[in-house]
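tool=predict chain=A
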Amino acid sequence: MTLRFYKYQGTGNDFVMVDDRAHAFDATNHQLVRRLCDRRLGIGADGLILLRLHADYDFEMVYFNADGYLGSMCGNGGRCTVAFAHHLGVVENEARFIAADGEHEAHIEADGTVNLRMQDVLGQQEVSEDGVFLNTGSPHIVRFLDASRLAELNVVSEGRAIRYNERFRERGTNVNFAEMPPTPDLPWQVRTYERGVEDETLSCGTGVTAVALAASRRGAVSPVQLRTPGGDLRVAFEALPDGSFTNIYLSGPALRVFEGSIDV
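tool=predict ok
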């Protein structure tokens, strides 16, 4: 069998995209997904995404981590799926779709920026010795670092230690390390260790969203500019008196890199 695929990336967070409107892809074949995401034996990606039709939405986004298993919400993946749906002619500049964490809306600007509405984050953020914990469609720990420490940090070692500690070992968590800018006009610096990939990725959409919301505790004002190793993102939100957040939008580029076919 030959599989037609597309490769997309959002600030360096890259995905194998499959037009599965015919529901022909075997979503239970974890080994196949893992091989397609392998950077040496396959196409190479942080995850694989199926675009499927849905009776109540423009489309459904089915996201797999690079380990081959279904994942929780992926923010950059969501933005790339919207761009992919636009490329396929499934949507124009507005989209309403369903993902692992529920309904999302998005719109594409003239310059290609994809603005994705994230789920509301309800309740107070949990603060512990690990950092600030919150769920932005995927679970995240945010740990703030002193100035100039982020560039030299061993993100894989430090992130893995938290992801597999006693608290998170069973379900796992993504781990973000963030550095406050020296002046408000500069972006927050972010690096992320992603569960499922089990490595540092160049960017994580739900991760920068978590950082932006956690940074509001430190005076960050919406919209928050954030810089990852793969590029810049923007997170806008409305903070509520009870500590919850609504009207959360993740914005940034989503680009088609190439397309091709592979025997599976």
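DSSP finds four helices and 17 strands in the chain. The chain has a mean pLDDT of 97.
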